Amino acid sequence: MRKKILPIVTLFLIGMWGCSPNSTQPSERPNIAAENQMPEMPMQQPNRQGPDNTEILTTLKLRQLPALAETDAIQPTGNVKEYRLEAKPARWELVSGVQTDAYTYNGTVPGPTIRAKEGDTIRVILKNSLPEETSIHWHGLHVPNNMDGVPSFTQHAIKPGETFTYEFLANHAGTYMYHSHFNSVPQIDKGLYGLLVIEPQNNEALKHDREYTMLFGGWNIPTKTGGHQGQTGNDPMAGMSKGKPNGLKQKGNIRSMMDHAAQNKDRQKDPHAGMDMPPSDSSEDDAGSSAMGMDYNYWTINGKSFPDTDPIEVKQGELVHIRLANISNGIHPMHLHGHDFRIIAKDGHPLATPSIVNTVTVNPGETYDIDFIADNPGEWVFHCHELHHTTNADVEPGGLMALVKYIK
Known about the structure:
By secondary structure, this protein is mainly beta. Helices cover about 10% and strands about 30% of the residues. A hairpin with a 2-residue loop joins strand 14 (about 340-345) and strand 15. The relative contact order is 0.16.
């Protein structure tokens, strides 16, 4: 008799346990966090459901978006977009407490973003207030040969105190760069670069709610130019990323690259004639690779290292456009947390079938246009996955990192 009753009692008890309000079901988990543990953050669920309550994945939404339109022909507008740039030395702060001597356009790194629409005429009047010659090259644009900005090939180098006017048609929409093309490595590494954006004449199919630009730079900051460990206090980032700069490693001078071109300069014809070479001495108090080692110890987005980089602010449901450009000599696989994004253009050329990824590798000299749907609220990082590039003087986090912040 006992053997028959025991299974019945056991089943009854199991049933009572399953009906208990304190029981653990697959959809319910008891709060077992101890008082000294980090409290759980409230989960914010993105609104991704379709009419039948099925989960619509972000990748499907991205695939349904139209591509950028390719430019086949443009109509000149007759409009002139004129910019005045002054190349001049200035002090520049990469991150709070770390300053260096820089070469700038109009006192900033990068220089002002030049914007025009397809068919506009771009006119840039450059005054050289540097202690050496310089020029501007329009990276990726098809311009007349005498506007290409390469001394000893297409123009005279612009001497200190001189002014030169560049003028050309904005003939293809896209994301481009402008930068020095004289004594290029140290001048670019010290800040002589900027972004150039040409908007399409017609692109009604694809509209973005927000646009951001990210221009990547590399810096070699000698010890004596500054830098300190961050102060502790209420700032949660303090002490995490300021670092102490490494010393500049001397591995040669940029002049050695140009010695061959200088050997016969007295016999050269225009535009080579009379071109002065870079000074043979270099100051260790300068930023950049006046040494050819490319031993960068700071990396910047739009001239700033994290945590001083500007955040990417978005609202729920927005379509966000980011223009990526790499003027540095490093390779930057840029990775976005919490989202996928589309690669919609490379080097100014739209992709007929955009790629959907979460990481894009931006090589030196390349530009990419990407977009993503802001459908996962929170605070996310967008950073280079060459992790040395997310440090300031080898102190993490820093460098090529920005926060994606959802705002009301």
